[in-house]
Amino acid sequence: MDVATINATVRSLIEDPNADYADDAYLQVPLTLCYTELANKLRLCNPDFDEYTIELPNVPAGTPDLTAFSATGQPLAFLIEPIRIEWKLPGQDPSLYKSAEKLSKIRDILIPGISAIDCWTWTHLTIFLSRFNVNLDIRVTGEFMFPPLSQGTDQALVGLNALPAMAYAIAATIGMKRGNQQWVTTYSAKADENFDTLNIGMCKGRQGKTERVGRMDRQRRRRGPGGNGIA
Length: 231
Known about the structure:
Number of helices: 4
Strand content: 15-25%
Oligomer: single chain
Radius of gyration: 23 Å
Structural class: alpha+beta
Shape: elongated
Number of strands: 7
Order of helices and strands: HHEEEEEEEHH
């Protein structure tokens, strides 16, 4: 589902298929608002909806925080809140990542530091790290905003089946902007209906995943770590 598809659908709903007034520039603001609102609502209903893991290879020794990686265009630019920080030595297998402890205040480690990240904290939208004295690969798992939609080929990341919820919400917003109460009433109701459908589908997907993991765990407990039966 790209921006061009969303815009074409919205134009059909607001009876402007030829973009006489609803050109791409006109639709940009309601598109951005509704996209952000939809993502926020799904994030509140589905805790792991926007959870991603970003790897930062070969971070220089002594780096006190990850501000440099949070600037525009950098890997952590859209980080809302970190969940977990892990580290390993460069060149090691990813299975060797170790978790650092999250604290409210960084432990005071003597200069020059240690060859590990002992702990981290999240303060003023910044990840601060304990003192380390070797280059490290760092893995950040957290909640991330989606990149903004601007070009016609940009893909909306909320889900392949989110077009109805997006299009109806944008059309309702345009109805408010243009004073068309019928659009507001009709399209707001349709947006809510399609959001509920989208959200229920995501919840079912998470429940299925949990059930599969639960079955696997029960099988392991019955068979034991090496596959042998447990009396």
